[in-house]
Design a protein that fits this description.
The chain is mainly alpha-helical and 222 residues long. It contains nine helices and three strands, in the order αααααααααβββ. 48% of the residues lie in helices and 6% in strands. Strands 1-3-2 form a three-stranded antiparallel β-sheet, covered by helices on one side. Strand 2 and strand 3 form a beta hairpin. The N terminus is likely disordered.
Length: 222
């Protein structure tokens, strides 16, 4: 039985016990308890099941660099078990970026690239939506932030399985999973290049074929 089904069953049982109170019991209390339980049931029904699994899973005993919750998410088997994902424009922008920037990476590598994009959304130095971050500078020579948006090639999704995989990763990231891989990175590049800014930014992680960096915080003195 899944976590969601188990919780739903427990709530249903509790609802029956409260609604079966003796006639002499406080009807107002019974009504309020039933209302609260109904609200909890409604709230739980909107929580993705993988998040409930994370909340109820026991921590592993030998985690090194990320939490037990993150290790569960970064498993290929876990990702394969998730239902096909979809969403609105922001989800689609993120899924597209992951497809063209990281579809050949490991699950951790895909999540790491996604973290950078989301970290930029949270930063005052960049636009405040996924689509605007990803498309920032598109159309300006040497001005695009993500190579695939200005390489002159049409963005064609030619690998359905890869698209399904990155779509799941994008869905989990958009739903708010903790970003445990890149230490707040806002930049990355492949190991095949060495951009000038990489000499000035602290490197926070190396995952797969990418190095990750955090943009230094500017102060009044620099």
């Amino acid at each position: 039985m899944s976590i969601m089904k188990a919780i739903t069953a427990a709530i249903a049982a509790a609802t029956i016990s409260f609604t079966a109170l003796p006639a002499a019991a406080d009807e107002t209390l019974a009504s309020r308890l039933s209302t609260i339980i109904g609200q909890e049931r409604s709230a739980l029904s909107m929580v993705p099941e993988y998040q409930l699994d994370l909340l109820t899973s026991l921590p592993a005993g030998n985690e090194d660099d990320v939490t037990a919750e993150a290790q569960l998410i970064y498993s290929r088997d876990f990702l394969a078990d998730q239902p096909s994902a979809d969403g609105g424009a922001q989800w689609e922008c993120l899924a597209e970026a992951l497809y063209f920037e990281a579809r050949g990476e490991t699950v951790r590598g895909m999540f790491a690239v996604g973290e950078v994009i989301l970290n930029r959304v949270d930063s005052n130095n960049y636009p405040d939506t996924l689509c605007n971050v990803i498309n920032q500078g598109t159309g300006r020579k040497y001005g695009c932030q993500f190579t695939y948006t200005c390489d002159g090639k049409a963005e064609v999704i030619a690998e359905p399985q890869s698209w399904e995989r990155v779509g799941k990763v994008a869905r989990i990231l958009v739903d708010g999973v903790p970003r445990a891989l890149t230490g707040g990175a806002t930049h990355y590049h492949t190991k095949a290049v060495n951009p000038s800014w990489a000499q000035r930014y602290p490197r926070t992680a190396t995952i797969g074929s990418h190095h990750f960096y955090r943009q230094p915080v500017r102060t009044a003195s620099n």
